Each structure stands twice: as structure tokens, then as C-alpha cells.
Amino acid sequence: MSHNHHPRDQKVSATFALLVTSDSRTPDTDETGKLAKKLLSEAGHEVVEYGIVPNDSGKIKDWLANVIENSETQIIITSGGTGIGSVDKTVDTAKKLFEKELPGFGEYFRRLSYDEIGTPGLMSRSTAGVVNKKIIFCLPGSRGAMKTALNKIILPGIGHMIWELNRR
Questions:
Q1: What's the rounded Cα separation, in Å, for the pair 19 and 5?
Q2: What is the pTM of this model?
Q3: Domain count, the chain
Q4: Which residue has the higher pLDDT, 111 or 165?
Q5: Does a structural domain hold residue 1?
Q6: How do beta strands 75-79 and 15-21 pair?
């Protein structure tokens, strides 16, 4: 079987959960969440869970734990809380849930970010991991970060990701 015809390269329609961590955004003012929903929908995917929670480890963990148990969700994206400030709790909270970490995601995302915005792109602690046959991607809260991660990493690789999650 050639690489171009491998089952992992098939077009799939995936279900997503989207968590925005912010102390100030609302569904009306969350432009990053709106962009993510638009890009995912245009690519043939569905956002089945969406939430905004404050930068609070307990609330982030509770939201993620609830979605991890939701069998409809295959991919979870978090937006916000990946920086180096004291309010940035998402990465630390999500990593405690990971069964496996995917360090290449964060490394490549920072490389792309550096190419786009320079050294500030290296301040992100973006990461990804697997828990309960779901992938969690932790992204910065900006529209640019969301667009880069979705268009250059997540959406082009979604078929392979789903294949890997479900193979025995």
C-alpha cells in the first residue's frame, strides 16, 4: 500500500471540544473561539462542546474531565493559559491529565510562531497530549495562534491522528 493510500490519510469528519480560558471573554467577545468554530466547520468538522472558564486550575480540570468522558468528542482544543505568567494555568492542568505527551506538537508550533511573530512565539508553552483516546491541544489565546495551529498542524493531520487513536 503506498503512503498516499494509507487509511490514516483518508478524509475524516471529527468532533471537537473547545475550551477558552479567560477572565474577561464571553461568547459574544470570544473572537478566537468564533474563528476556531468557523475553521473547523469549513473543514467538515463539528464542535460539540464549547466553554469559557476563568484561569482557575480547578475549573479548567473540571471542564476537561467532563469532556474527556463525553464519547462524542475526539479532539479537545484549549485556547489561552499557555504563557509564562502566574495566571496561565491551562498547560499545567492539562498535562496532569495526559496519558501520553506529544512534545513534537509544541516544538513545531513554536517554530511556526517564531517564523510568524519572532521571539514572542517562543514564550508559549503550547503542548498536546492523549487521554482516554482523545487528543488535547493547548494553544495560546490569540486568533493568530489558533489559525496557525489549525491550518498548519491540526487540520492537515486530523486523519492520521484519528487513525492513530483508534488502531490497536
A1: 34
A2: 0.93
A3: 1
A4: 111
A5: no
A6: parallel
